């Protein structure tokens, strides 16, 4: 039986890193439509959305902000999001604890 070993070169690592830079971290927004070129604070909530925002900040990746179809759903699945959104970079991030929930807010340039 033949097995294939993955390549372990710096060139291969560069290709993987480059591919990750092209992938947006999706963040659902409930009641806000965003447009490119606008800088404004937004608030997100939900465990998955907060984890995604933290990952985007940690890895310095851009986010894709997508409006939820039903804003009452706490943790929407991909089917619960509109197909078109806005790509943005997080300029400033802070997490604030309100009652039992954590909320994140950040400024986004288009």
Topology:
Blueprint: H1 10-21, E1 25-29, E2 40-45, H2 47-59, E3 63-67, E4 86-88, E5 92-98, E6 101-108
Parallel strand pairs: 1-3
Antiparallel strand pairs: 2-6, 3-4, 5-6
Description of the structure:
- The chain has 110 residues and is of the alpha+beta class.
- It contains two helices and six strands, in the order αββαββββ.
- Mean pLDDT is 75; it is low at 1-7 and 12-16.
- The longest helix has 13 residues, at 47-59.
- The chain is globular and about 30 Å long.
CATH architecture name: Roll
The third-level CATH topology is: Archaeosine Trna-guanine Transglycosylase, Chain: A, domain 4
Strand order of the largest sheet: 1-3-4
Dominant shape: globular
Distance between the termini: 52 Å
Instruction: Give me the Rg, rounded.
Output: 17 Å
Strand percentage lies at: 25-35%
| Count of DSSP strands | 6
Mean of residue pLDDT values? 75
